[in-house]
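Worked Example 4.2. Read the sequence first, then its structure tokens.
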Amino acid sequence: MHYPDSLEKLIQILKKLPGIGHKSAERFAFQMITWPETILTEMGEIIKNAKKNLNFCAECGALSDFNLCSLCDPTQREIKQMCIVATVKDVFLIEKTRQYHGLYHVLGGLLSPITGCTPDFLSIISLKNRIKKLPLEEVILAIDSTLEGDATALFLKKELKELGIQTSRLALGLPMGSSLDYIDGGTLATAFTGRSTW
């Protein structure tokens, strides 16, 4: 027996979420259809407006409700350090550790010949321009310890060398082949405090 079209469409949409297989999508869908109409309407509005209402900070590239985010506010952040990350989610993961209080710069991805992500697709030019303008003493590469992450880190090290800025990378407390997305807060905090010049 086939599910009604509306239920099947809901299941297919839920399967688009990362880590959600068919069984989980079915379970979520059957749960959602038992919710009151008001909750479903509110959920729909939140999803509909989430992307529309969020902005990428014009300075660092992090997510914000405004054109510039609070993470770029020199009165609230240590402007002698800049942490370079691959994605906007990485910013929030690092902030949760409460170990870092400097600025950020989001690359927008990692170098990957397989997917066609070349240096032109990353925000490297704006990164170098920011570094030249700021009184930085250290740039921290907080990038996944993967093949793509290592390639990106090596490329950045070479690019930033000419700017004469000290470059460090998170300590090797991060397991090889791991993504920041799956690292617990304690491991990430230790990696930050134990970073070494790179």
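Now turn to a second chain, presented in exactly the same format:
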Amino acid sequence: MHWENYTSLPEKFRNQRVFDGCGIAGFINIDGKKDDGSKIKDMLTILNERENGLGAGFAAYGIYPQYKDYYALHLLFDDETSKLDVIDSLSNIGLVVQSEPIPTKTPSNVDNPPIVWRVFFDPKEKRSISQDEQIVQLVMEINEKFKGAFVMSSGKNMGVFKGNGWSQEIAEYYKIKDYKAFMWLAHSRFPTNTPGWWGGAHPFNLLNTSVVHNGEITSYGTNMRYLESFGYKCTLRTDTEVIAYLFDLLSRKHKIPVEIASLALAPPLFEEIDKLKDIYQIALKNIRATYRSAMLNGPFSVVVGFSDPIPTLIGLTDRKKLRPLVVGISEDENTVYMSSEEASFKRLMLEPNNKFSFKEIWHPKSGTAVIASLETGLIRDGLEKPFEKTKLTIKGV
């Protein structure tokens, strides 16, 4: 896909780079109740001072129950030729269960949109690798080798909707209010140092992992080379891509619990590690040594959603908290919210149709993950020390 085709804003806006910008938001309903896109839209669009019209997007989990056993490929195409090339290729290597346009606003409210398409797919071919790994390889191949094509998302029972425009415009273009999901993520503005194109908007996704990011990953080169040693191909022209792939590598391929994966990506400073019990020091230093090339440096705050095996929402900032993250839990303790600003929560409290209040709103510690999952609820509130209030066990403790 050629990003130049979809940079439709005036030159002065294309070159605008607001380094402390980006609005991020997300929530998970612990009981699995599905909310339509109105709430996440309100949470994101209130952060309009954090965006510059260069891009926005949403990730929704639980939206395709009728196709929950198939991979939902959300795709962008330059033209009909690129679309037919990809769909023909999919038909040759697996079962295309359903192939259709993603519903959008007609007439379009955004300039020069690409073809937005979805395919529900089953890689029926039996191979020595898992179906998930087959899909990962497929996504890498399409993004790298198929001219005019890009995979927005590739998970089951979920999808990413993103593109060039203001958050309000993208929400209307994809008819976000028509989808119902138990977990939502959202992002406004655009990657800091990369060109404005549809595929480069957030969220970034691989299988059931989606990431929205505010900040800049200065370790991108190291992270990229590390990922490429495991077969990942970073072709999307943005630092955020590595975060999604790293979460997939650690949690899916290496089967590391999310608490440990979060520590690997944003480990405590050595001066903080030295203050802990000896057994914790050994564990953390081993994590740092093993995954030193996966560590994220630079100012960042991220909200991550994944659903393998349990739908989970994660919030994480850099170790100095150079980018903001705010967390809230509803009065009934059923919904955990995350955002780059408390304004997202206040917007919900002012909505006449949302008659609820927050039990608590707090700012997690720097470099400390907030984790909430379906049924289990709030696992970590981001105020703990490493390994505190966790069910994980370390040999010798």
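Notes for the reader: The CA atoms of residues 234 and 296 lie 16 Å apart. The first strand starts at residue 23 and ends at 29.
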